[in-house]
Amino acid sequence: MRVERQIILLLFLLGAGAPVIAEERAPAGMIYLTAGSDRDTRIHNGFKRYHAVCNHCHGPDGLGSTAAPPLIDRLHGIEPFRRVVREGTGRGTSVMQGFAGDPNVAPYIDDIYAYLEARAAGTLGRGSPAGQSR
Q1: CA–CA gap between residue 55 and residue 27 (Å, rounded)
Q2: Where are the chain's structural domains?
Q3: How far lies 36's CA from each of 76, 95, 102, in Å?
Q4: How many C-beta atoms surround the C-beta of residue 88 within 10 A?
Q5: Mean pLDDT in consecutive groups of 10 residues from the start of the chain, 134 residues
Q6: In degrees rounded to 5, what are phi and psi of residue 89?
Q7: Which residue from 52, 93, 112, 132 could staple onto 46, CB 3.0 to 4.6 Å apart?
Q8: Rounded to whole angstroms, how far apart are CA atoms 96 and 6?
Q9: In angstroms, rounded to a whole number, what is the distance separating the alpha carbons of residues 97 and 87?
Q10: How far is CA 86 from CA 38, 39, 104, 122, in A?
Q11: Rounded to whole angstroms, how far apart are CA atoms 21 and 32?
């Protein structure tokens, strides 16, 4: 996996723009690898939305806190993520409300996921995505 990250970074630095990965080696369903200018907009928007709503419990940059688990260590597929964000979840005394009706979250679930996915893959460091090589 580390070699793939280095190849992606190399292609980006050589001017390929959005990372190019051979289809047979591309991680299935990686939203943050969306080609074109939409990619950076999606990740930056996800960063802003995450830090406006999610970081209060899940910690800065998806690293977790005493209130909620890290998201970049346990990032599951997009469908389970959408379901949990919309409907909420509860385990023991830990409860997360659903955000299906929240206009600041519901329309941006995929953007938040793209941001967390880039963090989980290690192609995006901590802090604002602005100016970071991905």
Answers
A1: 26
A2: 2-121
A3: 24, 37, 28
A4: 13
A5: 43 36 39 58 90 91 84 87 92 85 94 91 80 53
A6: -160, 160
A7: 112
A8: 36
A9: 7
A10: 23, 23, 12, 26
A11: 13
